[in-house]
Design brief:
Layout (H helix, E strand, L loop, with lengths): L1 H5 L11 E2 L3 E8 L4 E6 L5 E5 L4 E6 L5 E10 L17 H4 L9 E13 L4 E12 L2 E9 L4 E7 L2 E6 L2 E6 L5 E5 L8 E4 L3 E6 L2 E6 L10 E2 L34 E5 L2 E5 L4 E5 L7 E2 L18 E5 L12 E2 L15 E2 L2 E4 L4 E3 L5 H10 L3 H10 L9 H18 L3 H10 L4 H5 L13 H6 L21 H24 L1 H10 L3 H7 L32 H18 L4 H8 L5 H5 L1
Parallel strand pairs: 23-24
Antiparallel strand pairs: 1-2, 2-3, 3-4, 4-5, 6-7, 7-8, 8-9, 10-11, 11-12, 12-13, 14-15, 15-16, 16-17, 18-19, 19-20, 20-21, 22-25, 25-26
Helix pairs in contact: 3-4, 4-5, 5-6, 6-9, 9-12, 10-11
């Protein structure tokens, strides 16, 4: 397992490598496939080891006193002129006429927290040293003083993020300007570099997300479950109160000690178990059973679980697009050529476990069963089409329908209809949520028999009407339905212009319409191939009951007219009903 860990690009803290001359290895990270950089406890400094030749290469005395380090890619423009690489010289006319600027050159940087004895002042001096790799050696570029208690650090963009017991700061690698992110004491600071220019910071059993400029990149925090805390009975995404997480929480979890990336998941480490959350969600959804790790913790000397190796630290040398993730590569098998697979190893110095992800289709099914709709939707959004046999667009549409229905039950009509629109949910399904809207004469027995508003909620059928007629909630829901129906109609017109031109002319000049109307069935059937799309908003709009464009458009038109006639409100009444001034579009409506 450790040999596999060495091949993934690691952050290891263990007793498994023991050198008599240099002391215990307390941290390590891969520079590339053949070279390993490690930190020793005795006379702490960094050393280089050749993994291909299995031989020690050299030490770096300039890093003596190192207490924490990280490797990362940063732009060459941060270097002083004497260390900056020469500008590329165009060698052909094509180089001179190239319209797109080439990507900025990157350098391998080493950020070290250094603690050295100042003999003049007779006190310890703590600094952050920034080194760049030049001619098989690390050259000091800049150094700045830092505070006591540095625990972890990572390079993101043009800055170094520092984690202390008292909070987090960031230092610009070019100007050495320091910016405090927040000052809240925590014994276990943790920094995780995420794809798409984000950093996750652990603070009091919550993960905050910052961009490379030190600004909040998300409106929410990821909540991990602290010692003795019960999972929330209800939360974002419309989870039902009576539902429990995928795995029940038992015993005392203890505080979160580390967080690591196992894309598309984030893993939080407690003393005796591991918690899992989707990388773009607000709450953890799974807890690995503590029984799995009892053997690893049986040794009295074991201090608790720790991440032995995670692929996240290899992101400094491989761009995110160079990683593969998911069950397309079997555990233990070699990844596709030129790609690195996300892997995570957890355990103690006596035993190591590898965390293996379930097939994503099964995970989304479990999240739906437990009513974690927002988390299931977030997982679908970060995955690719090949992870789902029926196509990503089908799974996304299903998740958005579940989430929209849950929001509708909470009377969050605008948000619910927004999810239905993004998921290209069948408009007839949405209309069935309104009492009597599909029971009016003229729609035909086909719709009434398929969408029975008095039937139960099923996966394929229609739910019973969720609104009481003539109630205030019903009136509010009708107002938002106007915008939804208008948007559905607009999308249909844009995606099926040739099929609906004749239908639009028919209401003005039946004679001209007979010449413009296509043959029955030609270019009017909505039968998209879901494997061709990654997002429902890119796929053609469709209805399972009315696959013909003209039939669906007629139902939308008559329903829109029915809702218009039902809303006999002035602008003042709309303002009172909505609790705000209506937008200009609703005023015109």
């Amino acid at each position: 397992a450790f040999a596999q860990a060495l091949q993934t690009g690691l952050a290891v803290s263990s007793d498994m490598i023991d050198t008599n001359e240099y002391g215990r290895v307390i941290a390590m990270s891969l520079m590339d496939e053949d070279r390993l950089l490690f930190l020793t406890a005795r006379d702490p400094m960094l050393h280089l080891y050749d993994l291909k030749r299995h031989s020690y290469v050299r030490g770096f005395p300039q890093t003596r006193g190192c207490i924490a380090f990280t490797l990362g890619q940063a732009p060459s423009k941060l270097l002083p002129p004497e260390l900056a690489p020469p500008a590329p010289v165009p060698t052909s006319y094509e180089d001179l006429s190239h319209t797109e600027p080439p990507p900025p050159p990157q350098e391998l940087w080493l950020a070290c927290g250094l603690e050295r004895r100042d003999k003049t002042r007779r006190e310890d001096r703590r600094t952050l040293g920034l080194f760049v790799w030049r001619d098989n050696d690390f050259v000091l570029v800049r150094e700045t003083q830092i505070s006591e208690g540095l625990k972890t650090l990572c390079v993101g963009g043009e800055c170094v993020f520092l984690g202390y017991r008292r909070g987090y700061t960031m230092v610009h690698m070019g100007t050495l300007e320091t910016k405090a992110i927040f000052d809240i004491s925590d014994e276990n600071p943790s920094l995780v570099l995420l794809p798409h220019q984000e950093v996750a910071l652990l603070q009091h059993n919550k993960s905050f997300f910052e961009d490379f400029d030190g600004r909040a990149s998300r409106k929410f925090r990821l909540r991990w479950h602290s010692s003795g805390a019960e999972p929330p009975a209800a939360g974002p995404g419309g989870r039902a109160v009576e539902k429990a997480p995928i795995i029940h929480y038992t015993g005392q979890l203890g505080p979160v000690t580390q967080v690591a990336l196992f894309y598309p998941y984030l893993l939080a480490l407690h003393r005796s178990t591991v918690e899992c959350a989707v990388v773009n969600s607000e709450v953890a959804v799974q807890l690995l059973p503590e029984e799995r790790f009892r053997e690893a913790l049986a040794d009295p000397s074991a201090q608790g679980l720790q991440f032995m190796a995670t692929t996240e630290r290899a992101m400094h040398r491989v761009p995110f697009e160079g990683f593969s993730f998911g069950n397309e590569v079997a555990p233990g098998a070699s990844p596709a050529k030129g790609r690195l697979r996300f892997r995570a190893f957890v355990g103690t110095s006596k035993m190591i476990y590898e965390v293996v992800a379930r097939p994503y289709e099964r995970v989304t099914d479990l999240l739906v069963e437990q009513r974690y709709f927002a988390e299931g939707l977030g997982l679908c959004e970060v995955l690719n089409n090949e992870h789902f046999p029926q196509g990503k667009v089908v799974r996304l549409s299903t998740m958005r329908r579940h989430l929209g229905l849950a929001l509708f039950k909470q009377n969050k009509f605008e948000a619910a209809l927004g999810q239905f629109m993004k998921g290209r949910v069948d408009p007839l399904f949405v209309m069935s949520l309104y009492p009597g809207l599909l029971r009016r004469p003229g729609l035909g027995p086909k719709i009434r028999s398929a969408y029975d508003p008095t039937g139960p909620v099923t996966e394929t059928g229609m739910p019973m009407s969720l609104l009481k007629p003539e109630s205030e909630e019903h009136k509010r829901a009708l107002i938002f339905l106007v915008d939804y129906l208008a948007n559905c109609r607009r999308v249909l017109l844009q995606q099926n212009r040739s099929a609906v031109d004749g239908y639009l002319l028919q209401s003005q000049d039946p004679t001209a319409a007979s010449q413009a109307m296509p043959e029955q069935g030609a270019d009017q059937q909505l039968s998209p191939n879901p494997m061709l799309y990654n997002d429902p908003e890119d796929a053609p709009f469709r209805s399972d009951i009315l696959p013909n464009v003209i039939d669906l458009l007629r139902v939308l038109d008559t329903t829109l007219l029915t809702v218009h006639l039902a809303l006999k409100y002035t602008e003042d009444a709309l303002e009172k009903l909505l609790g705000q001034r209506p937008t200009s579009s609703r005023s015109r409506t």
